[in-house]
Amino acid sequence: MTRVLLASRNAKKLGELRRIVAAAGLDGLEVVGLDDLPPFPDAPETGATFEENALAKARDAVAATGLPSIADDSGIAVDALNGMPGVLSARWSGKHGDDQANLDLLLGQLSDVPDERRGAAFVCTIAFVIPDGPEKVVRGEWHGTLTREPRGANGFGYDPIFVPDGDTRTSAELTPEEKDARSHRGLALALLVPHLRDL
Ligand SMILES: O=P(O)(O)OP(=O)(O)OP(=O)(O)OC[C@H]1O[C@@H](n2cnc3c(O)ncnc32)[C@H](O)[C@@H]1O
Ligand SMILES: [Mg+2]
């Protein structure tokens, strides 16, 4: 069994990563999370791009654990905000990981933005780093529009205000399987799976 670390401190995101990797049926891979290992310090995410942040998180995890490591840096890019919150999505309200405050602030900022200009995209960049080995970075995008009120209880983060193109439900109203099949995270991991099979 080869061990692979999913290096995320966000329990909901980690759950999605675990679920998607499990669905890919990678025989011979044992997936571990940060909660299965001794703690190591969480470096600040200071990169200007999702790619830089994902690579930094995966490299830190490799340095601390010696395990092949996967890290996800993701967020929402809003057209009317010129692509923000972007890499600041997790701390848009000033408090890291406060999903409700982040979502409320974003909705307030967009209150005067008309329906035809409420486009947004979820972006997920995943870095896979092997000790003394190659580094891979993949990216998935999921395009849609933003609602005016939150709807739905599934998912996390900005899911209750994001309606993916081709649907009328928010991504918090999709089943987990529906979200995985279409999401930025599902798309990125699909691109990574061939590299995981090579391990
Ligand atoms: O860095 P780690 O430890 O993985 O955990 P994190 O929560 O800090 O993760 P990010 O730095 O990548 O920030 C991602 C933020 O973007 C949002 N986000 C990412 N993927 C999302 C999704 O599938 N649905 C809703 N919101 C999402 C969510 O608000 C997250 O807090
Ligand atoms: Mg983070």
UniProtKB/TrEMBL annotation:
Where, in this chain's numbering, is substrate bound? S8, R9, N10, A11, K12, K13, S74, F156, G157, Y158, D159, K179, H184, R185
Reaction(s) catalysed (UniProt annotation): XTP + H2O = XMP + diphosphate + H(+); ITP + H2O = IMP + diphosphate + H(+); dITP + H2O = dIMP + diphosphate + H(+)
Q: Where does Mg(2+) bind?
A: D73
Active site residues per record: D73 (proton acceptor)
Q: Which GO terms describe its cellular component?
A: cytosol
How many and how are cofactors bound here?
Answer: Binds 1 Mg(2+) ion per subunit.
Q: Which InterPro entries match?
A: dITP/XTP_pyrophosphatase, ITPase-like_fam, RdgB/HAM1
Q: Which Pfam families match?
A: Ham1p_like
Give GO MF terms, alphabetically.
dITP diphosphatase activity; ITP diphosphatase activity; metal ion binding; nucleotide binding; ribonucleoside triphosphate phosphatase activity; XTP diphosphatase activity
Q: Which GO terms describe its biological process?
A: nucleotide metabolic process; purine nucleoside triphosphate catabolic process
Q: Which HAMAP family match?
A: Non_canon_purine_NTPase
User: What's the family?
Assistant: Belongs to the HAM1 NTPase family.
This protein's assembly is summarised as: Homodimer.
Q: Tell me, in a sentence or two, what this protein's role is.
A: Pyrophosphatase that catalyzes the hydrolysis of nucleoside triphosphates to their monophosphate derivatives, with a high preference for the non-canonical purine nucleotides XTP (xanthosine triphosphate), dITP (deoxyinosine triphosphate) and ITP. Seems to function as a house-cleaning enzyme that removes non-canonical purine nucleotides from the nucleotide pool, thus preventing their incorporation into DNA/RNA and avoiding chromosomal lesions.
What name is this protein filed under?
dITP/XTP pyrophosphatase
Q: Which organism is it from?
A: Actinokineospora fastidiosa
